[in-house]
Design a protein that fits this description.
By secondary structure, this protein is α+β, with helices and mostly antiparallel strands. The protein contains 19 helices and 47 strands. Among the domains are: 206 residues, Jelly Rolls; 122 residues, Immunoglobulins (Immunoglobulin-like, Sandwich), CATH 2.60.40; 76 residues, Sandwich (Immunoglobulin-like). It is 21% helix and 30% strand. A six-stranded antiparallel β-sheet has the order 3-2-4-9-6-7. Strand 27 and strand 28 form a beta hairpin. It is globular, with a radius of gyration of 29 Å. The chain binds 2-acetamido-2-deoxy-beta-D-glucopyranose (7 copies).
């Protein structure tokens, strides 16, 4: 952590070295939050949001507790004013600026009691010249005041303006407050199916007062774009080419004529790799840009986790005057890599390998296709102002420990802070990043488009240098959902709204992305079928494919596969019917919700509410959106609870414990088992096809505790896995070995059948099969029908254990190593299985710091190590199965612990058997 902190301070050094300028940070205490009408005035800080300062001063309770989501609506409807103490140390007669990195969202800014500006975009940086105001301002009056209006009320006002755009019925997805699409604020602040609606207001990012003498500038933002010579976005570049480093500084102030730029590229030990002047320097009244080339041989590549090292460098850039005075210096930590989203048509060579026709839709890192294994990342908190690097670092550790290499940073939250990209750069997590639009269509009047342009320009330039930045996507569920809904509701108007969609996502946003970055691909929508044509001699190089699935090749259309998929149907029956899963090249979202653990529930609801369908629990389940996209009947919204109940009842022994809290806990756990079961079937299915995967519905709870899902996904995200695929209706069982290694792997798969007591059964399948799996490919190692092989047996008393042992090598590594994986298949639902008490025994060794779990009398399904609250940790493995007389040693990584190790004594073990018991 200490190391990280020093790094982040270093990266924040964007201020010029020249001495005369005066930069006053407005961070920290020294602020007052007030609302005179409500007679509230409390000490506050910056950055912050009103709920947080009200909570810190006990004006309100914990916004997350119980039903405060609803009880604190009065905070949402009010105006909140942040007023600074008088700012000292300002010289009245020089050029003076206010700089805000983020105001959430509608703010009226005053300085010295005089109006400065109004703002209307949470995601923009704002800076204002206040020299003339300061020149006549007494020292005691040098206060900044930021009066924030109610975003939901202002959104409604905008919606009611004459001539305002409207959309066909059902297109605009409403959660709790409506009209979010008219304003540039975190869209999930108005409610979402996974979260509360607080619509917070406040200065959520740092701010400064900057004073400059003549011929001085202040760097407010900058971009470094590193790409292979000749590289264009969306096109795989020549990996032998040298690197172009293009650096551009956004400044305000008084830039003298004749500036130049010098650079020093160093490794992390500050040893210079290359240095000199940047060439082709261009200046405008707001930017200075220059570039150089770095020979490919001078630098090592950056790779994501599991694919190679995360090599990083510092790019130090000085802006130098004609008299050799350093006007400004910036340092950006960078990496050398190419990351391309390849949406080209399937080539003849690919067809010859047996890949289905259609288009590609996969990422290539440094010219290599790789398997994207990941999750979706939704905002980690309803209040960004309290998200710390420490918290994100713990979360990202869990991502890497879970064998994941990519996060889709879901649109409709907020743009990720730099520290998040810094951590991802260090840990090797690719961040598929999205502009903040989702599940709605948006206005296209000039003022809205101009506002968006500024927002995109600022954020694209701010984070482009991070090697973890993998992609820009226009928004969430636009082509596959929003345009589809228009077509359903008002097919006559599809052309009109499609043209508007293109105005925003192609004509407005795309040129800003490609005008700034050669290194990052852009797709207008997650999810989409990719581009139909790509031609950089057109003003807008991309034409979207939409549903034009013309094969254009000899294969029949039905075999063609395009683009990404996004799949939810909330029918738990799909667990053993993989023909229900969509076929695509990449799955960006799918799954099912599950309950948090009892430990997490206890932190946020009262003991009296700890039951599955208590009013509080039901009202905290915002899925599906209230009343089917309508705020009026929110109280009836227990559909989400009903879906989870149905899933558990369909497949597992139903908890029926005498103690009501124990029963609640067992239900919560059972919903997590279903979630894990469903995700692993889908991950297995998507990995097996010639498609790519990255699932959603986070498997990690608010405080960092892993759900069953995250352990199960960790297991399924190993490089080489064996997995069964079963159609319960037909009895068709196949078993496949899937590998995402970059070279072929060879090994043996073994099969053994048991009854639930652990006696071996002589079922007639091969006991071992040798296999070879090609690079990023799958091989079938068993295909049979349970109706044949289990004829004359009771299928409810059979389980198949399958294991593999194979030799191969990791990407970017020649050494051979052994890969092992095991999996289980049961032909009936576990609720019908003849489970026996596996006689689990748990012990702990303080010398090895390992737990040991042993099954003594039967097959143990879904073995679960649980630990009490007060600590957050993850076990090396969990949610596994055991044969009788089999033991497993389980280590752990502690993330936080307020029990001084006391949690160890509170660890318990159970399996699915326990769910059948009354105590
Ligand atoms: C509330 O805030 C908005 C945005 O700053 C402002 O336009 C409006 O005048 C404010 N209203 C009051 C009563 O302060
Ligand atoms: C590299 O330089 C920075 C800034 O001067 C300094 O803070 C850091 O400690 C140096 N790192 C090493 C490894 O010397
Ligand atoms: C900077 O130049 C642009 C045109 O290139 C102009 O529109 C803008 O007003 C200028 N800004 C300032 C602060 O001079
Ligand atoms: C400066 O502008 C010229 C002309 O537009 C362009 O060719 C050159 O690439 C620019 N330099 C940089 C570093 O972008
Ligand atoms: C600025 O520095 C360069 C390189 O160090 C040198 O060649 C040049 O003469 C200097 N110019 C002035 C005005 O000092
Ligand atoms: C569909 O795509 C084909 C090329 O694959 C193109 O020739 C045709 O014009 C497209 N149709 C439409 C309606 O855009
Ligand atoms: C919770 O309520 C829903 C909706 O009424 C119902 O379908 C479900 O069976 C209940 N679940 C439990 C575990 O009681």
């Amino acid at each position: 952590m200490v190391q990280f902190k020093s790094t982040s301070i270093l990266l924040a050094l964007a201020s010029p070295l020249a001495c005369a300028q005066n930069v006053v940070s407005l961070k920290g205490d020294g602020w007052t939050l007030s609302n005179p009408a409500l007679n509230i005035s409390v000490p506050a800080h910056l950055p912050s949001q009103a709920h947080l300062d009200l909570f810190a001063n006990q004006v309100i309770g914990d916004p997350y507790y119980g039903l405060n989501d609803f009880n604190l609506r009065w905070v949402v409807w009010a105006n909140w004013t942040y007023t600074s103490d008088p700012i000292s140390g300002l010289s009245p007669s020089i050029s003076t600026w206010l700089l805000f990195n983020g105001l959430d969202t509608f703010a009226t800014i005053e300085f010295c009691g005089q109006h400065v500006a109004n703002t209307n975009n949470q995601f923009r940086q704002y800076w204002f010249n206040v020299s003339s105001i300061l020149s006549t301002c007494a020292e005691a009056d040098r206060q900044i005041s930021l009066n924030f209006g109610s975003a939901p009320l202002i959104a409604n006002d905008i919606a009611n303006q004459p001539g305002q755009e409207t959309w066909p019925y059902g297109v605009q997805q409403v959660y709790e407050f409506t009209n979010r699409w008219f304003i540039r604020k975190e869209q999930s602040d108005f409610g979402w199916d996974w979260g509360p609606a607080f619509a917070p207001a406040g200065p959520w990012q740092p701010a400064w007062v900057v004073q400059l003498e003549s011929e001085e500038v202040y760097v407010r933002n900058s971009i470094v774009d590193i790409y292979r010579e000749g590289q264009m976005p969306l096109i795989p570049p020549n990996q032998n080419n040298d690197w172009v480093v293009n650096a551009s500084i956004d400044y305000f102030g008084d830039l003298p004529a004749g500036v130049s730029m010098s650079y020093d590229l160093t490794d992390l030990q500050n040893k210079t790799i290359a240095s000199g002047s940047l060439g082709n320097v261009n200046c405008t009244n707001s930017t200075v840009t220059g570039e150089t080339t770095v020979p490919a041989s001078m630098v090592d590549l950056w790779w994501p986790s599991q694919l190679g090292p995360q090599t990083l460098y510092y790019m130090n850039i000085d802006l130098v005057s004609s008299s050799n005075k350093t006007l400004a210096s910036i340092t950006k930590r960078v990496g050398f890599r190419t990351i391309v989203l390849n949406e080209f048509p399937i080539s003849d060579a690919q067809l010859a390998q047996g890949i289905a026709p259609g288009n590609n839709w996969h990422f290539e890192i440094n010219g290599h296709e790789f398997y994207a294994k990941g999750s979706n990342f939704i905002p980690p908190d309803a209040f960004w102002a309290r998200v710390t690097p420490e918290r994100i670092s713990l979360l990202f550790d869990s991502v890497v420990e879970g064998n994941q290499n990519m996060l889709r940073v879901w649109a409709s939250g907020a743009y990720s802070p730099d520290f998040m990209y810094d951590l991802a750069d260090e840990k090797g997590i690719l961040l598929w990043s999205e502009f903040e639009f989702g599940d709605a269509l948006y206005p296209v009047d000039e003022a809205f488009l101009d506002n968006v342009r500024e927002e995109i320009e600022y954020n694209v330039r701010r984070v482009n240098h991070h090697p973890s930045l993998a992609l820009w996507a226009g928004g969430n569920e636009l082509e596959n959902l929003e345009l589809l809904l228009v077509n359903q509701s008002a097919p006559d108007e599809l052309d009109y709204y499609m043209a508007q969609y293109e105005t925003l996502f192609l004509d407005t946003i795309l040129p800003v992305v490609f005008g700034n970055s050669h290194s990052i691909s852009y797709t207008p929508s997650s999810t989409s079928n990719g581009w139909l044509s790509l031609n950089f001699s057109n003003a807008i190089p991309v034409i979207e494919r939409y549903n034009n699935l013309t094969a254009g090749r000899v294969q029949p259309l039905t075999c063609s596969v395009y683009g990404e998929t996004d799949f939810y149907n909330y029918d738990p029956a799909v667990l053993y019917n993989d023909s229900a899963f969509p076929t695509g090249r990449f799955s960006n979202e799918f799954g099912f919700h599950s309950m948090p653990s009892i430990q997490s529930w206890r932190q946020q609801i009262s003991p009296a509410d700890l039951s599955f369908n208590s009013t509080t629990v039901i009202l905290r389940d915002h899925h599906p959106p209230p009343g089917g996209l309508n705020t009026s009947n929110f109280v009836n919204a227990s559909i989400g609870q009903a879906q989870m109940t149905e899933a558990v009842e369909m497949w597992y022994p139903v908890p029926n414990k005498t103690d009501s809290v124990a029963n609640f806990s067992a239900w919560c756990h059972a919903t997590q088992i279903f979630q894990a079961d469903l995700y692993t079937s889908e991950i297995g299915f998507y990995r097996r096809g010639d498609i790519w995967v990255a699932p959603t519905w986070a498997g990690i709870e608010y405080d960092g505790r892993w759900k069953v899902l995250h352990y199960a996904a960790k297991d399924y995200y190993q490089h080489v896995i064996i997995a069964p695929y079963y159609n319960m209706a037909t009895g068709n069982l196949s078993v496949w070995v899937t590998s995402d290694l970059w070279s072929p792997i060879r090994g043996t798969a073994s099969f053994a059948w048991y009854d639930w007591s652990g006696n071996k059964l002589p079922v007639n399948t091969s006991s071992s099969v040798d296999f070879i799996v090609g690079a990023i490919n799958s091989t079938q190692v068993l295909q049979t029908f349970t109706t044949d092989i289990l004829a004359g047996r009771d299928p409810s008393n059979t389980v198949l254990h399958m294991t593999i042992e194979a030799a191969g090598s990791l990407p970017n590594c020649n050494a051979t190593r052994v890969f092992k994986h095991g999996n289980w298949f049961h032909p009936t639902a576990l609720k019908d299985a003849q489970l026996v008490d596996p006689g689990l025994k748990l012990s702990y060794s303080s010398s090895t710091k390992n737990f040991t779990v042993e099954a003594r009398s039967g097959v143990a399904a879904w073995v679960w190590l649980d630990y009490p609250s007060g600590a957050v940790l993850n076990f090396d493995s969990n949610a596994f199965w055991l044969l009788p007389n089999q033991t497993r040693e389980v280590g752990y990584v502690v993330k936080s612990d307020s029990t001084n190790g006391g949690w160890i004594g509170g660890v318990t073990v159970q399996s699915l058997w326990n769910q059948t018991l009354s105590t």
